[in-house]
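Let's do one together. I've listed all components of the complex below, 910 residues spread over two lines.
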Amino acid sequence: MELVNLYKDIDNFVDKEIELNGWIRNHRKQKEFGFIDFSDGTSFKHIQVVYDNKINDFDEIATLHNGSSIHVKGILIKSEGNKQDYEMKANFIKLLGDCPEDYPLQPKKHSREFLREIAYLRPRTNLFQAVFRIRSVAAHAIHTYFQDRDYVYLHAPLITASDCEGAGEMFQVTTLDIDNLKGKPDYKEDFFGKKTTLTVSGQLQGEIFAMAFNKIYTFGPTFRAENSNTKTHASEFWMIEPEIAFCDLDNLMEIEEDMLKYVVKYVLDKAKDEIEFLDKFVEVGLKEKLEILVDSNFTKIKFDEAINLLIDSNEKFEYTPIHGEDIAKEHEKWLTNHFNGPVFLTDWPKEIKAFYMKQNDDSKTVRAVDLLVPGAGELMGGSQREEDYDKLITRMDELNMDSKDMEWYLNLRKYGGCIHSGFGMGFERLLIYLTGVENIRDVIPFPRTPKTCEF
Amino acid sequence: MELVNLYKDIDNFVDKEIELNGWIRNHRKQKEFGFIDFSDGTSFKHIQVVYDNKINDFDEIATLHNGSSIHVKGILIKSEGNKQDYEMKANFIKLLGDCPEDYPLQPKKHSREFLREIAYLRPRTNLFQAVFRIRSVAAHAIHTYFQDRDYVYLHAPLITASDCEGAGEMFQVTTLDIDNLKGKPDYKEDFFGKKTTLTVSGQLQGEIFAMAFNKIYTFGPTFRAENSNTKTHASEFWMIEPEIAFCDLDNLMEIEEDMLKYVVKYVLDKAKDEIEFLDKFVEVGLKEKLEILVDSNFTKIKFDEAINLLIDSNEKFEYTPIHGEDIAKEHEKWLTNHFNGPVFLTDWPKEIKAFYMKQNDDSKTVRAVDLLVPGAGELMGGSQREEDYDKLITRMDELNMDSKDMEWYLNLRKYGGCIHSGFGMGFERLLIYLTGVENIRDVIPFPRTPKTCEF
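Okay, and this is what the predicted structure of the assembly comes out as:
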């Protein structure tokens, strides 16, 4: 059976024989006894397997290495020790797959840097068992939230021929034989007959689908070829981008708040052991932080008013807050501290936001919103979209954008357009918040960053 | 409110006032009445909105174009006509977004080829409302199946530095300025410091995770740069690749069968209207085909025995079935006909299967399995994996594979390896089966195929 099922109904198995397949995480031997810290990977919880010298092949079993896979048969008993409530008294242990003594994962603390180098083994450690199971649970929370509310899940395309958003540097995708290029590449000969790149966002396709299905979301990989080696940047990451028709900015903020609370609550419910572990060893106070979020009131404040608050605060910031300019992480932090909870920052200067955002009547700001969360900074970015064809094309002209490439996007405004809004959430940013793990390289199974593309 | 919620509890709303936002799919006007075929995209079901000349702005409303977005207020009534059970008697209609008369989507039958050209509008048609909502529902069915059974969802990396499986031609990913290359490209200068491509499979990373979490699945995009323009090939498509530790080929087949039946049943339950529509207009008998699958027995037969059956059948095949060689679509069809249901074809000649598959003692065959389904052909391909380090490396040597690049993969056999198995299912292949739509371009929102990369 599996440990996850054993623990769902463990009292029912006491004094009964059970059989398990899994791995030796640690093995302590005494003269007449042995203790195996046993995990089968289906549950964050391990179980202690005890055997004594009455077992067949005691001497051989006593030599089993850490990391080996074994088959165990025995009786589940209520433990008398205080370290664990249950243990297994083995009457049969069989080696399935050996593991040499120089196994890189030893039962001791390894640095995260070292574990990144052996990313193919780190999922076996407690830390990464917790992180990657939470990644899985959180992904399902997101799907379940939207599907239960009748959103349509859109797989936006990954390979694209247009850099619509200009959101960053892009990877080129090609089948041209660039090792043997003679002169300039002829893109007519390339696979798609033109120059193509990896997408930076599925939003524009999301708008297409929102104009047909009303409420949609994407959840897929996006790419940035930014050459920055920071704790929060990866070249390949997953994004969630909901888009909703007949939805203004106020409705959008309600959805963002409702979704975030749902996902956090779902993870608290479904990954209890993992959260407890991270709370203890990674971010002290993590669990309380998440519980507080679920019950908190989200503040709404306009960008301009926030700048006033920052200026009036007399706080010594490294960067002086200035009207019309972007804010820094320290400002985000001050604001969430000041309001003691998450803050929706709305109505941003149009110059620092994307072309497709709904222009306010002041002709200076747009109906954009960033959600700032204590301990995470900006977690979501969204906006009402400009649904006015003329205003949109004027803005694109101002920004010297080629509207011909974007005719289909503009036409969404011409063919039964309507007020609509959407937001984007970087999945890894959410995971950093949910796990307390600080480096994006530690919430992605096999991270891709400048000069790193292993496994 | 939303149509989806209205229809969940429609009898409760009879004779009550409701408000809707959505689109005019068709508009018939008479002298004193108007009839709007109204859809808000949240439900496959539309509703008929009726208004008469007592409504404010009757003359203006009567001019509203197909495709326009409107806000409607009115009373829900039980309809006396026999075409629909309910309709809405409008007392207020407001135009939100106009749509010109030359709107490409007219209320008539458009060819699928034409609709592909306007892929940004086709989700508004009944056919694609059905197909893409089923795509969304089926995706969630797959997630729910695995999550309910404690599988961990793995996001396998998309950009990769190794062509492990050799499953096909690959797209190169680069940030080198190939428009201005001087001589050979220097991959040390490329973004990742080496040559990188888009993945063709997440299986090998799936094995890493199975050795840590026991039961895992991937569900993400994969890529093939094959220059083939067929109804079943796309350059970018989504794959599901479960991988399970302590699982042999027989267990694997049980999982495949159980999962497929679950997903089909889920779609039959949750997309009733869509399936009814497709059954009527796309594939007559679709619904029955799916219902039969859910209740059918899956046959298991060895490849060699299947070849014998094919040879003994005296059927005039275009390609003669030969021991040790691959079979053709006509053979697959004959087999599912013969067994009157899905067929697991096991123990394939090793020469035509991948290097990582578990070698049988006959040294000729491997523990591979293809699932053949009536009306779909091969729907899943899987195998038990070779867990023996020496056998695996010998096989790689035979195939002139560079085992140095794959050290981590080989090490999975050294560090507590165990019997394990997995399979892959192309999501679009499933969708073609579920919808009866024949061309893969019509089950992908924005398909990428040779020379085509639009939207």
